Backbone:
């Protein structure tokens, strides 16, 4: 009896002692952007390894945690790794709310409670899509590690070339789509080989530093440079404010690292470096390849809070790519190597003197050099492009129903070009030219919201191009009306202009002058919400183009049953175009469970060339980027806090084979009809699985991806040859990726 009492007393004493040295942690895990609770999130006590998973309401509880300072490690696949310091009390329960940012974004204290699950970059634009960091990282691809590949899956986007990052929207190609990163609007944001056709391209931007990507497909405010078509805007994130962080990624094509952290309480910094081994990958895909391509790039960004109302951001993006042609035997023009180097510097200052007024100033420089050498060291092509731009803007919100924005821009462009061709004993100079030009623009934008359900937004951009001595006004009008809760109608109209480039100006007949191209677009759309997480968008549009640029006498063709060779090619504003189309998108956005979209686009883009005169029938043909049917789909499912599964699918009826090419039972032949036949339909399904492994102070994520899971034969255009006697066309297309399983790994500290 005495023995039993002793044991019971000992147990009670030990229990009391244990309870006196431990505490309990409870809390809620939420998504930082929307404040929505996150389920199945792993919460681990770093020192002891104790852990719990959040429930459907985001709540978790960990008992018997040693008293004192503790660090919680919070991990869920698709979101940033979070460390949260807490102090465990002996008497009180520690209760915390921990916000988690998506993708590679860093930990923040603030929570945007009630934010819509559907992102909008620009109010009133009927057709727009925005990707957050989580979706960019999931869609960039393990093969290419390229944010442009993520954009290629967005509704309405057309592409059919696995080797190129560029894309088309509504019949307009890369040359007519505005692309910017943090306001730097430039066509030079790619790793590619200048002066060489039928190569590949890849983003100059590491996906791990991006916060979002927004595509505006229809009429939209023209705050940046002037383009005929859509806009794609990337935004980079600031460095971590809480501690030093390191991310290391090993993908199928490149290795990269991101290091970031705070400097004091008012500044953050971020550095990213990426090195490719894509040349090795291409040899695995095609052992007969005679070309290798590789790149190195880096990004750095510093953010300084000068005062509570002033922020200064400075960033640098730099990259270098190399191509080598391993022809056997080589000829006098075989490239070894072709090098391209790009540097972008960006300085941005933002000042908010009051809650109703904000102003910003931006200055950026883009400098790109290329030099393509042959085996004996001679230079075949070389050149330089430089863009120096200042931009200032302001936003004034005098009353809740009125928002006034305005700004101005000055841009200076310069370029040089040198082009040669060699034989074993001589060389031919094809081009030796330089040029420079400036432009100036101003814009104004007013959004009037007389009620919570209705808004109208007129605006205009006025720009002068010195090179062509032309001044054009580009107005727009956007309206949106909420007919009832969950149902919105949007209408947009606008006129957009785009100036010919300095390269275009090099090839203009004497006595003639190019003028800016013009596009007039109208669009109507309706959005229907189905609950909080599903919406359906339906839009129809029409675009009329005038003064469209065409490279005249640049293509071999048949005229009056005679073969006509290119002679004195030059640029003219000779095209008029019409584009009409409609698209429907079904989309689900949620922090838990199933996410994604399914979209279908029908588009018809044609051009007419009336250079023959009003009495002759015009030459009519499909746009080079006309794709009649496009289906894009993405679905992702977070199976648990550690595992996610996703699939992306793209289908397109495909673009024309550009040029005067026809097809018969024996193959391809020269034709009198331009863009008369199309590439075979493009279809590609990619599957992916992500699995995280969380340790005491780090996390490892394993990516497994199957590219072209259906092993479909897809093709892209190829520079073709012609037998002038038989008029047969040789090799106008080449094959793309076969079924390709790849893997990658991400380590975070």
Residues:
């Amino acid at each position: 009896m005495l023995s039993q009492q002793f044991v019971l007393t000992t147990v009670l004493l030990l229990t009391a002692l244990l309870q006196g040295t431990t505490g309990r942690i409870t809390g809620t895990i939420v998504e930082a952007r929307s404040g929505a609770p996150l389920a199945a999130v792993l919460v681990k006590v770093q020192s002891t390894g104790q852990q719990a998973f959040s429930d459907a309401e985001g709540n978790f509880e960990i008992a018997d945690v040693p008293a004192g300072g503790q660090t919680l490690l919070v991990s869920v696949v698709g979101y940033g790794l979070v460390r949260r310091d807490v102090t465990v009390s002996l008497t009180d329960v520690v209760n915390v709310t921990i916000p988690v940012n998506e993708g590679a974004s860093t930990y923040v204290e603030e929570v945007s409670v009630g934010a819509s699950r559907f992102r909008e970059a620009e109010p009133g634009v009927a057709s727009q899509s925005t990707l957050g960091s989580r979706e960019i990282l999931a869609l960039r691809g393990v093969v290419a590690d390229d944010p442009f590949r993520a954009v290629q899956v967005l509704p309405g986007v057309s592409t059919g070339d696995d080797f190129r990052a560029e894309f088309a929207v509504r019949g307009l190609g890369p040359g007519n789509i505005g692309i910017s990163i943090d306001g730097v609007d430039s066509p030079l944001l790619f790793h590619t080989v200048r002066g060489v056709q039928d190569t590949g391209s890849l983003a100059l931007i590491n996906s791990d530093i991006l916060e979002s990507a927004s595509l505006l497909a229809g009429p939209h405010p023209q705050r940046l440079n002037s383009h005929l078509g859509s806009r794609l805007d990337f935004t980079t994130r600031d460095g971590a404010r809480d501690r030093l962080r390191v991310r290391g990624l090993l993908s199928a094509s490149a290795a990269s690292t991101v290091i970031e952290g705070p400097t004091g309480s008012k500044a953050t910094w971020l550095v990213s470096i990426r090195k490719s081994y894509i040349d090795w990958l291409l040899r695995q895909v095609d052992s007969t390849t005679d070309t290798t391509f590789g790149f190195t790039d880096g990004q750095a960004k510093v953010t300084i809070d000068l005062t509570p109302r002033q922020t200064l951001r400075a960033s640098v993006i730099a990259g270098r790519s190399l191509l080598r042609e391993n022809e056997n035997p080589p000829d006098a023009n075989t490239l070894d190597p072709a090098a391209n180097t790009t540097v972008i510097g960006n300085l941005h200052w933002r000042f908010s003197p009051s809650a109703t007024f904000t102003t910003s100033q931006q200055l950026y420089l883009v400098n790109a050099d290329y030099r393509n050498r042959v085996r004996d060291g001679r230079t075949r092509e070389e050149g330089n492009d430089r863009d120096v731009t200042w931009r200032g803007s302001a936003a004034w919100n005098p009353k809740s129903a009125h928002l006034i924005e305005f700004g101005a821009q000055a841009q200076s462009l310069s370029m040089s070009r040198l082009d040669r061709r060699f034989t074993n004993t001589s060389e031919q100079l094809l081009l030796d030219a330089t040029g420079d030009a400036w432009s100036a623009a101003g814009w104004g934008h007013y959004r009037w919201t007389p009620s919570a359900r209705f808004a109208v937004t007129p605006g205009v951009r006025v720009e002068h191009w010195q090179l062509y001595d032309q001044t054009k006004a580009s107005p727009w009008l956007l309206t949106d009306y909420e007919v009832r809760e969950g149902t919105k109608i949007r209408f947009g109209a606008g006129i957009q202009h785009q100036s010919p480039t300095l390269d275009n100006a090099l090839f203009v007949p004497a006595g003639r002058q190019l003028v800016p191209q013009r596009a007039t677009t109208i669009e109507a759309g309706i959005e229907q919400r189905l609950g909080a997480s599903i919406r359906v968008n339906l839009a129809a549009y029409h675009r009329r183009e005038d003064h469209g640029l065409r490279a005249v006498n640049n293509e071999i063709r048949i005229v009056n049953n005679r073969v006509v060779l290119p002679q004195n090619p030059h640029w003219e504003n000779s095209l008029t175009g019409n584009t009409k189309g409609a698209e429907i998108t079904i989309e689900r956005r949620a922090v838990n469970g199933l996410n994604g979209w399914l979209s279908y686009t029908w588009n018809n883009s044609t051009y007419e060339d009336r250079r023959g005169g009003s009495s002759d029938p015009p030459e009519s043909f499909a746009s080079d980027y006309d794709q009649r049917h496009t289906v894009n789909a993405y679905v992702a499912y977070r199976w648990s806090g550690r595992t996610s599964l996703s699939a992306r699918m793209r289908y397109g009826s495909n673009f024309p084979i550009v040029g005067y090419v026809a097809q018969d039972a024996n193959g391809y032949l020269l034709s009198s009809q331009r863009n008369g036949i199309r590439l075979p339909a493009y279809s590609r399904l990619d599957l992916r699985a992500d699995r995280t492994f969380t340790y005491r102070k780090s996390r490892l994520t394993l990516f497994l991806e199957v590219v072209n899971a259906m092993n479909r034969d897809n093709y892209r255009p190829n520079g073709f040859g012609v037998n002038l006697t038989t008029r047969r066309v040789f090799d106008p297309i080449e094959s793309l990726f076969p079924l390709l399983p790849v893997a990658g790994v991400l380590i975070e500290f």
